Amino acid sequence: MSRTVTRAVSAMRPGDHACFSFDHPSEQSSVVGGYVVNGLDRGERVVYLAEDRDSRVPGLNLRPGREQERYLDTGQLRVIPRSSVCGASGEYDPDLVMAVAGEELHRLAKDGYDAVRFSADWSWALIRARGEERLVRGESAADGAVGSSPVAMMLCHYDAALCPRDALDKVHSCHNATAVSHARFDDGVLRLAPTFDPHGLRVEGEIDVARHAAVTEALLELSAMPGDLLVDLTGLRFIDLRALRLLAEFPGLHRDAARLVLSNPPDFLVETIRTVGDRLPADLVWAEGRGT
Amino acid sequence: MTGLRHLGAFYRDDEDLVRTSVGFLTDAMAADEPVLVVLRPRHQRLVQERLTALAPFRTRSRLVFRGAGGISARPAQAMAGYRDMAAAHPSGRVRVLAEPDRRVDHCAWRLREWIRFEAAVNALMDDVPVTLLCLAGHDAAPATAQGMRWTHPGLLDSSGESPNRDYRSAALVDSGCDLQLGLPVPDRAEVFVPEGTDPAPLRARALRAAERAGLSPADRMRLLTVVTELFTNAVLHGEPPITCALWTQGPSVVCQLTDTGDWPDAAFLGLTPPNPPHTSTLGLWAVRALCPQLQSHTSPTATILRVTVEPTT
Fold it and tell me: Where is the Histidine kinase/HSP90-like ATPase domain (chain B) (predicted)?
């Protein structure tokens, strides 16, 4: 399907049937967690298909104040066991997937919700015998249904380490969108990309006044996860003084944000900090052994 | 404890310089006032020898000696250093004994920025409890001697302290430093009006100019930083359109930005050090710290900022 668009997970909207392949569990937690939390914050229903009813939604419990039980109790979050979409043989059944989705859509208005977000990790189904064939059929059907829906969107995720590349490409092509982390930014001058092991942000290119907002948004999104946020500056080619101030002030201005730990400063940045470092509003924190 | 005392003294020869300096320093030691000494290396050695001879066992831990090259080359840092020293001794006065480095006599921009710095001391440190004594030889270049007389409210000689009748207001001196900004830019300048508010295209042009001039990678980064800060400042605080002019001047690169806004407070641009956590002046202070040749000219219809980045020696 040639109509696939790339969509930041935070910008997904009804009608989007997005595919997301991840390389690391923390990448899955970041992106899926962001998608789920966005929906919960907007008062939408979230339906997550998991191994069983007690399974955790990736990334949700890692965010402060986002206990899964709280949303399960109110019914805003529904965790559907995998067995609901499996036939008698225990295999993924595309028809059951559509039936379950149909039931959820049917009860949506009755339960008082305007929109629903579906999400599932389909890796387990794709790696089974005839998994590719079944998934292509199921994802194509879902694409037709979700793509024309004014109230539903769906994020399908696949573990790239588990799934064969060819099969992944085929199921990917059955989606009308490719989901990426919101922290991803590329305007040809600055490229921001999340890193997942360690958790952080890789900065490549130039940061200036036209790009401060993108940096702030990326840091805010990634710092919702617990622990320090490592900002890798290896590819930094320019940074203005306001951006340096932004990095120094960020933890103080955003109370719940992570501590920023900067690493691999280029030589020019070391020089700049030597000149202005003691005039910044707060100390920059450097990764041990690689700082200035 | 009153505010600033800013004195100038002309010395006839080495002996006169040493006698004046040692008198100032021994008075400071008697009053237990810390002193920052910013003299040329030979003068510094002569003063230290005389101090040792006069009072060999007296502790001089409150005297800090620095090289005199910093004032014209690093005026933003020098101003910050003076203020920081005063802030570190809130219960009493501090002193500075200084002289311009020798290059001020031979280099137009160093002379200009030294004169601007001395005027800025009067304007920006008026409330700081510091006594500054600046020295210049009778053999100083006429322009250097004139700069001394324009910027020091009091003069000191063997008969004591007296008011300086040639003293000029700090604002007048500052504006006089930048009169040539009212002239057209050279014909060879690349003049353009960037679209939008993105500084990246200006940086790309500045980088090409830096390559043509042969600036080192470190000096190129200084240029990119200062032109970006000035452009950002014009975008955030000026009025469009912003006209940029870039040209090479020997081994240096000059960048001039003109916007149509009026900026009445532009005097002594970049010489007010930011004091964390209040860092609103960080950008322009950093420009001056990275590049001492920062000039400005304002009128009701235009604000012109010019920065010249020369190779680091």
Answer: 201-308
